[in-house]
Amino acid sequence: MAVKGLTPQLAERGKIKIGMKGEEKTSSQGKKFMMPVKLDHFLITTMQRDAAGRLMPDVALMARLKPEGGKITEIPVRLLYDDIDLNFPTRYACYKGNRCWCSGDGETA
To answer: What does the pLDDT read at residue 85?
Structure first.
């Protein structure tokens, strides 16, 4: 028997990036920040971080997807189900701060 209202999901293995952090700059108020840099290719990362706090590249997966001598500009996509609602579940949600306070389907919350 399945749990009522539970939607099966896949575990997150990593992220697909189209940009990265660039050089560090200082604002007029004295705060330090890193300017974003746009990439002309995809960068696939694991969920692990290096000593600087950046996500580490998934070297094995990128080697499988990369064309010879090139960069990853296309990624094959597979959907789990034939039903669009199962592949892309939606809901209304109300957040207070960074916590979900209430969610529902538009009729019940």
So the answer is: 84
At 59, is the secondary structure helix, strand, or coil? helix
> CA-CA distances (angstroms) from residue 43 to 18, 27, 72, 73?
6, 28, 8, 9
Reduced to 3 DSSP states, what percent helix, strand and coil does the chain have, rounded to the nearest 5?
Answer: 10, 40, 50
Amino acid at the residue 25: K
Of the candidates 67, 16, 9, 78, the one whose C-alpha atom is nearest the C-alpha of residue 46 is 16
Check whether 1 has a pLDDT greater than 60: no
CA distance 57 to 46: 6
Return mean pLDDT, the chain: 87
Reported pTM = 0.66
Give kind and range of the element (H or E) at residue 49: strand 32-49
Buried/exposed code over 32-61 (b: 16+ C-beta within 10 A; e: otherwise): eeeeeeeeeebbbbeeeeeeeeebeebeee
Going from N- to C-terminal start, the domains of the chain cover: 15-79
